[in-house]
């Protein structure tokens, strides 16, 4: 009687099998009890100029080696990677106009006019993490913790009593009077009723202001003219303009301050120092000019 088990036919074990890309299945071990042939996943080809609907690589158009749509004789960037938008010269676009092509630009929305580094990002000269256009304290020493405007994390870097977070002039020199926004101001220059003639005390204050402007040549100031509430709005606006221009003239003609640094700003009766002034003293406090540094 022929050997067998219940009539079942058994094939001999052929060993472990792996798939070879050139000639199919290869046996690499005959130890064990089972047979596991397999195929690797099929990878799509990498195409330099894209694929068609059938998954086949496209060939570049004759005379356009990089397939960007600009013929080789006019293509100033003949090796543009596939898929990038190009200009009429065949070079990748520079949407923000910073001189760094979009394909290399790490900051593609740089504001116009600001210098950038080789990555196309706005410069941060002192490397404090705040880019130069927003840095109100350039030149911060390396390692110093800064706030949102690039100033020392101390609450009041210039010591003028105004916190950095709301200080529009964080570089105010020590000892200068400032307004609520942290910028240098001069007040106390008052006028007689219906007059734009500057009094003796006002002249003295303007001389002191001129000394500051000469020392800090980067300062620009607005000269704010004001009136009391008597007379019409139109008349008071005209009078406040004459007062602001009188102080501007004095600083320019008598003290030699450049006119480009002085900006007369008439406000009429719209910004009283004393609301609803009734007495002569209160109304005089409203007839004034103030100097405010322009941030």
Automatic annotation (TrEMBL):
GO molecular function, one term: calcium ion binding
GO CC, one annotated term: cell outer membrane
High-level lineage: Bacteria, Pseudomonadati, Pseudomonadota, Magnetococcia, Magnetococcales
Pfam family, one: TSP_3
SUPFAM superfamilies cross-referenced by the UniProt entry: OmpA-like, TSP type-3 repeat
Recorded coiled-coil stretches: none
Location(s), subcellular: Cell outer membrane
Organism annotation: Magnetococcus massalia (strain MO-1)
Top-level taxon in the UniProt lineage: Bacteria
Protein name: Putative Outer membrane protein with four thrombospondin type 3 repeat domains and one peptide glycan binding domain. Thrombospondin type 3 repeat probably binds to calcium
Keywords carried by this UniProt record: Cell outer membrane, Membrane, Signal
Region annotation (Disordered) ranges: 264-288
Protein's UniProt keywords contain ATP-binding: no
Domain OmpA-like per the UniProt entry, residue ranges: 178-295
A biological-process GO annotation: cell adhesion
CDD domains according to UniProt: OmpA_C-like
Family annotation (InterPro entries): Bact_OuterMem_StrucFunc, OMP_bac, OmpA-like, OmpA-like_sf, Thrombospondin_3-like_rpt, TSP_type-3_rpt
């Amino acid at each position: 009687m022929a050997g067998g088990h219940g009539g079942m036919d058994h094939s001999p074990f052929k060993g472990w099998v792996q798939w070879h890309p050139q000639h199919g299945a290869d046996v690499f071990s005959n130890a064990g009890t089972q047979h596991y042939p397999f195929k690797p996943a099929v990878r799509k080809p990498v195409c330099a100029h894209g694929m068609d609907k059938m998954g086949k690589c496209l060939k570049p158009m004759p005379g356009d080696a990089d397939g960007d749509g600009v013929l080789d004789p006019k293509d100033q960037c003949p090796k543009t990677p596939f898929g990038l938008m190009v200009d009429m010269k065949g070079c990748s676009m520079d949407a923000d106009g910073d001189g760094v092509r979009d394909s290399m630009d790490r900051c593609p929305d740089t504001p116009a006019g600001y210098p950038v580094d080789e990555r196309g990002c706005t410069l941060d000269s002192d490397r404090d993490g705040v880019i130069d256009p927003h840095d109100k304290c350039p030149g911060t020493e390396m390692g110093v913790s800064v706030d949102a405007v690039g100033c020392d994390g101390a609450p009041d870097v210039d010591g003028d009593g105004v916190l950095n977070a709301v200080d529009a002039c964080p570089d105010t020199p020590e000892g200068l009077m400032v307004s609520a926004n942290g910028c240098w101001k001069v007040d106390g220059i008052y006028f007689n009723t219906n007059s734009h003639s500057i009094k003796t005390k006002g002249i003295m204050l303007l001389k002191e202001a001129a000394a500051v402007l000469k020392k800090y040549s980067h300062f620009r100031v607005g000269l704010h003219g004001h009136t009391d509430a008597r007379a019409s709005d139109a008349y008071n606006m005209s009078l406040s303009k004459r007062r602001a221009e009188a102080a501007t003239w004095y600083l320019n003609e008598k003290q030699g301050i450049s006119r480009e640094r002085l900006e007369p700003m008439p406000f009429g009766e719209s910004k009283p120092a004393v609301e609803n002034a009734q007495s002569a003293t209160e109304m005089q406090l409203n007839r004034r000019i103030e100097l405010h540094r322009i941030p």
